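ingest -> validate -> predict -> emit
validate: passed (alphabet ok, no gaps, 309 aa)
predict: started
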Amino acid sequence: VHQSKLDFFCKLGYSKQDICKVLENLGQEALEDDVLKELIRMGSKPQALENQAQPSPLKLVARGSCSTTAGLKWLGEDESDCSDSLRPIVIDGSNVAMSHGNKEVFSCWGIQLAVDWFRERGHTYIKVFVPLWRKEPPRPDSPIADQHILEELAKQSILVYTPSRKVKGKRVVCYDDRYIVKVAYETDGVIVSNDRYRDLQNENPEWKWFIEQRLLMYSFVSNRFMPPDDPLGRHGPTLSNFLSKKPVLPEKKWQPCPYGKKCTYGNKCKFYHPERLHQAQLSVADELRAKIKVPLPLGKEEEGCQCSL
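emit:
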């Protein structure tokens, strides 16, 4: 048991010294979830991140930034996955599957619909996290539909199984939500889930900000995966900008004046006048004087002379 846990956390990049220290404190029979939580609490980092000499194990990356090379390396990803203009996508597989199955059936087809939606938009980095025990044959109390989809996505390196095992006939499951938030945070990506992760928000203030700003909720409408067009509310970014590393600001559109050519506000009018594009910005009184060829007042003449000079 000790060697299996040591090998598992060494693959994640943690040093043997830190792992042994945690196992001595918690005991050899400690759950993997508890060991991972203790490693994070004591400030231990994977070796790939340790070489970067960061001041803290969790460093908040600026929005729109792509400076997560170290996190990608220890996760076994290529740097090219982060070179495009779209953010990485991390999907809460259990949440999506149960939502598509109306909270009664673990519908793997719902996961496929979500993956296909992001693929069609051009996303190259897509990860789905599902507990390992979902590979087991379905039971009456936990039905699973289209279970073969999980293996197909796993072969494509899209689906990742979180660890689980049985101890004395009792299933021990690692907390998959922590994997989801951690990977999305490290890759500066987007979390696809209808879960609020309140417990993880209270655990880490930086995760709290990240979850609030990068959580993409969704709905299923007749086997159609539909995220909202305004993920952060009506005053927030559009869906395209939310999923992009470099948001595109919309062009400013001027509202045409409702009075048209009959407008008497002149250059003080805040609306758009297409007929005034090539005209001098004069007040209405000055325009009338120009039409009847009345000389400008003395003050206006001096201003005109100074402008001509």
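The longest strand covers residues 126-131.
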